[in-house]
Amino acid sequence: MMKIIKILSQNAKYPKGIIGNFILSAMNLGHNKTALWAISKINLQDKKIVLDIGCGGGKNISNFINLNKNLIVFGIDCSKTSVEKSIKTNKNLIDEKRVFISNQDVLSMDFEDEKFDLITAFNTTYFWSDIKRGFELVRRVLKPNGEFMILNDGGSKQALEKYSKTINVENMLLCDEYENLLKKLHFKNIKIYKHKNERTVCIVSTK
Fold first, then answer.
1. Residue ranges of E strands in 85-141
2. 87-127 per-position pLDDT tens digit
3. Which stretches make up the Methyltransferase domain (predicted)?
4. Topology annotation, domain 2-206
5. Angle CA(154)–CA(145)–CA(131) in degrees, nearest 5?
6. Is residue 19 within 8 Å of 8, Cβ to Cβ?
7. Strand boundaries in the chain, DSSP class E
8. Do 64 and 39 contact (CB within 8 A), yes or no?
9. Are 132 and 107 in contact (CB under 8 A)?
10. Domain residue spans in the chain?
11. How does DSSP classify residue 107?
């Protein structure tokens, strides 16, 4: 049992192979309701170009397009298995050149400055090895007045501790710690939303 939990934990952070594909499919289905709840906190109609960091199985990329047919959406993930799954999920949109997916890590993404109107990170920031540096790079590629949205399962210390028992996380930050870091990096209009499940939190800030 412990070996299975370890394998699942590693694949949640870095999906790989058959097990990784299974987890990505499960995430596309299991996380969709809370993802749509978080997306509802953003006005997508005034956005033109979006970046989803840690795009996983690619479901949120198609969610964005479904909610605003005029969007161009980029997705990056450090896992090649995730990139392959995201490409498969969004094949038609990629063929139409409305979606672009690449194998990149947040700490080495190579986009030009001030490219995106919205940047999102769904259940991924606690896997970043350096959250501060990641947020600095997010700010670099975000347009002035662009928005940065974080969705995490871990709205309380108890929830984070429970989550970390099964998932190997790099950084466990609470809402006020995210807020303080965002303020230090000169993000503004920081809003924190807590889901009724008392586990999921959405944080939206503006450059």
1. 99-103, 116-122
2. 999 999 999 999 999 999 999 999 999 999 999 999 899 88
3. 46-154
4. Rossmann fold (3.40.50)
5. 35
6. yes
7. 49-53, 72-77, 99-103, 116-122, 142-153, 188-194, 200-206
8. yes
9. no
10. 2-206
11. G
